[in-house]
Fold this protein.
Amino acid sequence: MKRFTHNARRITAVAAVVGAFILAPAIARASAGSPARPYANGITPLCQTPGLVIWLDTTGNGAAGTTFYELHFTNLSGHACTLNGFPFLFAVNLAGHQVGPRAVFRRPPTPHLVTLANGKTAIAVLGIVDTGVFSRSACRPVTAAGLRVFPPNQTRSKLVPFPFGTCSRPHGPASLNVGAVTR
């Protein structure tokens, strides 16, 4: 019995020491003396989809069969974050399912790192091609209910309601094009 009690004390002591080493950094970060920082390593994190409001300025400018709109990414995460690259997006129906092919990437601009302070906005230019420039059989025009938008380098999306004409054939002409995110 004494042997069992001695081993149990030894195991308990080792567990306490290991637990202290594991919890010490967390306790130090949570202490009142150290300010809470979302990125202690000095690198500004990527903007995560839940921390962004994604919206479309519906004042479009048309040219040569395409109307261009500004797709806005407003950072409301509570801290600075970065965007770099092209948003991935496609038209959706009322059920939120993809209609037609995804947007093709348009250059310029060349992608570059955009740092957004909390409350600031970056944009990407979205082009919507008039479905009348395509043959009806190649395009199969329909009215989309909006856009499903994935911010650059993210796997979660947000829906942006905005009815517009688009091609519905999955391998038909791309009626959407999008530029890189800029300031």
In short: The longest strand covers residues 52-63. The chain has a mean pLDDT of 85.
